[in-house]
Amino acid sequence: xxxxxxxxxxxxxxxxxxxxxxxxxxxxxxxxxxxxxxxxxxxxxxxxxxxxxxxxxxxxxxxxxxxxxxxxxxxxxxxxxxxxxxxxxxxxxxxxxxxxxxxxxxxxxxxxxxxxxxxxxxxxxxxxxxxxxxxxxxxxxxxxxxxxxxxxxxxxxxxxxxxxxxxxxxxxxxxxxxxxxxxxxxxxxxxxxxxxxxxxxxxxxxxxxxxxxxxxxxxxxxxxxxxxxxxxxxxxxxxxxxxxxxxxxxxxxxxxxxxxxxxxxxxxxxxxxxxxxxxxxxxxxxxxxxxxxxxxxxxxxxxxxxxxxxxxxxxxxxxxxxxxxxxxxxxxxxxxxxxxxxxx
Length: 344
Fold this sequence. Notes:
The protein has helices spanning about 45-55, 100-105, 110-115, 130-135, 155-160, 190-195, 225-230, 255-265, 280-285, 305-310, 325-335, and strands spanning about 35-40, 60-65, 70-75, 85, 90, 125, 140, 145-150, 170, 180, 200, 210-215, 235-240, 245-250, 295-300, 310-315, 320. With about 350 residues, the protein is α+β, with helices and mostly antiparallel strands.
């Protein structure tokens, strides 16, 4: 099943939406496609993969799910800004401001409806840190650290009935030496206050607050702006622009107590910066640079139309020229002059 975040849209860009009152979306409780935003994919094939997943699981706003294919989805648990939580209705359904990602999605074959229903299911087995630790304890590894065997999905689903996801307060009884308690309110800020600036210094991109998600390349096609429009509709997500990298920047928070307990047992030298989506990890792999010095330019949904206007395309929709970080900052300043250029 093609998931909503994929940007391989139909060649003819067919609009598949119906009027709201006849659409399957109108009877979908909770609107999971507008509440769980897939960010990237991982695997659990080695001990190193387990550490990566566990580091992500220390962020209460990050969810993990294992699909039937064995692929793990990393998703952001937050509602789209255009979703009416009372009616579960999209406030821009069918309008010109709605992303083509949403308009071209076939609600009649919706993957989200089954994957995120209240009961545990095979379409997507969801994990938090306690569940992940349960799985690790029952995983057999080879001497080189690769995974040999894991419990079958049916056994995992059955066991997870005793490990509920929301508001979990789990005291392990023999399966793990770690007692973990999550408070979803800890460290929270109003969404509007999370980004208060046009720029973010590289040295201020601490993993306790900021995570960077792919694709890390600059947009190459007009359709990539549709993916940006879709993703930036979710509160807490922005674009971080440098001259050799555009990343999706999530302003979130780390459950420091859970992280310390996990690290103390598994790898005491672990630090939040070792998260695979921290600036430290990204910069080590790509050596990010910017015309503005060591600063990201932070763009939001209000800036996308102007950024696209200043981008040159060929007849096939391929990008021929895109603004650099200094030009992007100038565009943003013209649109949002009231915000000071200081660290977010």
